Amino acid sequence: MVTTTNLEKKFAEAMKSIARRADVKTYVEQTPAIYQLLQRAAAKYVTGEDRQDGLEAGRQLADKGYAISLEYIGENTVDVQACEAAALELSLLIHALAERGIARVSFDLSHIGLSLDGDLAYKNLTVLGALARQAGIELFVSMEESAKTDAILSIYERATAAYANIGITLQAQLNRTAQDMNGLQSIPGRIRIVKGAYQESDHLAIPRSSALNERYVQLVEQAIRIGHRVSIATHDESIIDEVIKRRWIHEPGVEFELLYGIRPDLSQLKKAGYPVRIYLTYGREWYLYLCHRIAEYPPNLFQAILDITGTGKADPVLEYE
Ligand code: FAD
Predict the structure, then answer these.
(1) 170 CA distance to ligand 1 centroid (A)?
(2) Tens digits of residue pLDDT in 33-67
(3) Three-state secondary structure call for residue 149
(4) CA distance 253 to 224
(5) What is the pLDDT of residues 278-299, one digit of tens each?
(6) Residue-wise DSSP of 231-291
(7) What 8-state DSSP symbol labels residue 304?
(8) What's the confidence (pLDDT) of residue 234?
(9) Does ligand 1 have an atom closer than 6 angstroms to the CB of 258?
(10) 62, 102 in Cβ contact below 8 A?
(11) What's the CA-to-centroid distance between 134 and ligand 1, angstroms?
(12) Which atom of ligand 1 is nearest to the CA of 258?
C-alpha cells in the first residue's frame, strides 16, 4: 500500500534526484522563459540575483534584531574563470557586510574551485579567510554531498591552521559525522550542525526519523562538550525544544540558525530571548537550493505553483517579527 509517508519519501527522493541533474540546472539557467517562471518560486527562499538584494533583506532582518548569514549561492563550478569570479563576488560581499556590521558569509567550496582542483579551492578559501579576518567577518563552509566530505574537511583543516575565523557545517544524517567532529576537536572554528539536504545511500546515512533527531541532539552535546561554538541549524521543533530544555542554548556561542523563508513563525524564539540567526542567499544559481527546499516539505510544491502562476505572494522578510 502507498501511504502518505511513503509517498512523501518517494517525492523527496525524486526532487533530490532532479536537484542533482546538472543538465536540467543548465537548461533552467540558460532558458530565460523557464528561469523567470521558476524564479518566482525561488523568491520564497532566495532574496534575489544581486548582492544588493541579499544586503537589503539582511539589513531589514538585522533591524528586527536577527543575526545574519549571507550565502552567494552556487556549486559544482567547473570553469576556472567562473570559480575566480565567485571568489571575487564573495570578497566584495565581505567588504559590503563589514561596512554594515553583518558578520557571516557562507559558501560551497565547489563554487570556488573544489570541483576542478582542491588546491584552487584552498587558495580561494585562504584569500577569503585573510580578507574576512581583516574585516572582522566569520566565513562558513557549507557541507555538500558525501562524495566531497573528505576533500571539504581536509581543505577546511588546512585553512583553519591560519584562519580561525572559518567555521564548518556537519551533517547529522551521515554515519561518519561523530567521528569527523572528534577530528575537529583542536580546531577553533564554529560548527554548524544540519540534518543534511543531499540524498545519500543507506550505508552512509540515515533518513529523517526520530533516530536522526536523537543523533542530532547527541552531536550538539558532543560539540559543546569539546568546547565548540555551535549553530543549531534546524527547523525541527523537537530538536529546538530539546536544546532549550537542556539549557544548551545558554552556553556561550550557541545559537539557532534558520533558513530565510522557512518557518518564519519560529521567529518567536527571538522574542523569547534566544539568539537567532537567519541564513539568506542570493545569486542566479538557485536551482539546487529550490529543489532541496521543495523536497524537504512537499506542500512547498503547491506554494511554488501558486508563486509561478502569480497568485501567491513572496515577501519573506515581512513574515519575520
Ligand atoms: P526536517 O526534518 O527536514 O524538517 C523539520 C520541520 O521543519 C518540518 O517538519 C517542517 O515543519 C519544517 N521544514 C523543514 N524544511 C522545510 C521547508 N523546506 N519548507 C517548509 N518547512 C520546512 N544542508 C546541507 O546538506 N549542507 C549545508 O551546508 C547546509 N547548510 C544549512 C545552513 C542552515 C543555516 C540551515 C538551517 C540548513 C542548512 N542545510 C544544509 C539544510 C539542512 O541540511 C536541512 O536540509 C534543512 O534544514 C531541513 O531540515 P530540518 O533540520 O529543518 O529538518
Answers:
(1) 13
(2) 889 989 999 999 999 999 999 999 999 999 999 99
(3) helix
(4) 9
(5) 999 999 999 999 999 999 888 8
(6) EE----HHHHHHHHHTTGGGSTTEEEEEETTS-GGGGHHHHTT--EEEEEEESS--HHHHH
(7) H
(8) 98
(9) yes
(10) yes
(11) 32
(12) 36
Give the pLDDT of residue 20: 85
Look at ligand 1, atom 53, and give the residue with the nearest C-alpha: 236
Q: Give the Cα-Cα-Cα angle 185, 123, 188 (nearest 5 degrees).
A: 20
Residues 6+ away with beta carbon under 8 Å from 281: 45, 46, 47, 54, 70, 71, 72, 73, 260, 289
Q: What is the pLDDT of residue 302?
A: 84
Does ligand 1 have an atom closer than 6 angstroms to the CB of 233?
A: yes
Q: Which of 279, 297, 300 to mutate to test the pocket of ligand 1 (most atoms within 8 A of CB)?
A: 297
The residue ranges of the chain whose pLDDT is under 50 are none
* Closest to 228 measured CA to CA, from 252, 247, 249, 244: 252
**Alpha-carbon distance 258 to 265, whole Å?**
11
45 Cβ inside 6 Å of ligand 1? no
Total-model pTM: 0.94
pLDDT score, position 261:
94
C-beta neighbour count of 254 within 10 angstroms? 21
Mean pLDDT of all residues belonging to the chain: 92
Cell of 248: 544548551
Contact 68, 280 (CB under 8 A): yes
User: What one-character DSSP code corresponds to residue 208?
Assistant: S
Q: What is the DSSP letter of 205?
A: B
